[in-house]
Amino acid sequence: MLKTPALIAAFLLAVCVQQAASQAPESDETIRVSTELVSVPVVVTDKDGRYTPDLVRADFEIFQDGVKQPIEFFAATEELLTVALLIDTSHSTRPVLDDIKGAAKSFIKLLKPTDRAMIVSFDYETHIVCPLTSDQEQLKKAVKHAEIPDPVGTTLRDAIFETVFTSFKGITGRKALIVLTDGRDGGSHINARDLLTRLQQTDTLIYSVLFRADERLRKERMLRTGRIDDFPGRRRGNPKKQEQRRAHQEELNGRAQDFLQRLSISTAGHFYESESGKLSKTFALIVDELRRQYRLGYYPPGEQADNTAHTIGVRVDRPNLIVRSRLKYHRQQPVE
């Protein structure tokens, strides 16, 4: 009788040990439950920029730091869109604001009734003019009421950051920002390098459209005065100072364009200039790309929490095709 409790205790201990052993990880799949799936949007076009349909998983290869990775997720079906239109309402865009607003309205018309969009304006701070909605009339009204305020400033980078990491937080599927701007920034808290690094964590495509306000001013002044040598908005004066001002403006324009190009390329989006006069065609191409882009996913090898950037490469096993995808994967702690 005295041995019975001891036998029962030993039996229960053996059962617990067996259950613990049966719950231990037996394969890599169990470990991957806590590993982040890297989502990689991919756009494949021919040399003329036309979307290439009908590709399958076997046509793709994906690499991290030059090492081929198994494709764990593949999607090629048409999906609904979540889009944010970012409208630059800073003082520097005054000559082209009507063009910017007209472009935004043109893009809205291309959305399906089930797509969602939001309107964000940015100047001295970021404003959500219209939250995510499928109501196109509400979106158009929001664009109409986007105006230049009295305070001076341009928070382009902050607007992009807040939209991607706050407004789009938790949203899955096909997401994009359409940024309509002259590219200048004068007041953002986040710098260009940090923004580009943070965007490496996302699968949101960014399409930037550059509106050259200085060029518009120069053309209007030339038509009004018949002179082509005046710096826009300035009285005639010392030619040397005028040349210095012109060189300074060209330098600022060059920096703005370079940033927008890097912004779009790094997120698999595209950079456009409004001067092409083909915005309607451009927007149709963007919507077609977004709606039918390919989406790949892979698990990064190992438990990488080193806060370093890893290069991503996507290859398609067909000739004469152009592939755009995320360039980097950067794992960081989430923003508090």
Provide structural commentary.
There is one protein chain. With 336 residues, the protein is of the alpha/beta class. The protein has a domain at 81-291: 3-Layer(aba) Sandwich (Rossmann fold), CATH 3.40.50.410. It has nine helices and 14 strands. Strands 7-6-5-8-9-10 form a six-stranded mixed beta sheet, sandwiched between helices. A four-stranded antiparallel beta sheet has the order 4-11-1-13, with helices on one face. The protein has a four-stranded antiparallel beta sheet with strand order 3-2-12-14, with no helix packed on it. Strand 5, helix 3 (97-108) and strand 6 form a beta-alpha-beta unit. Helix 3 (97-108) packs antiparallel against helix 4 and helix 5 packs parallel to helix 6. The radius of gyration is 26 Å and the shape is globular. Mean pLDDT is 82; it is low at 7-34.
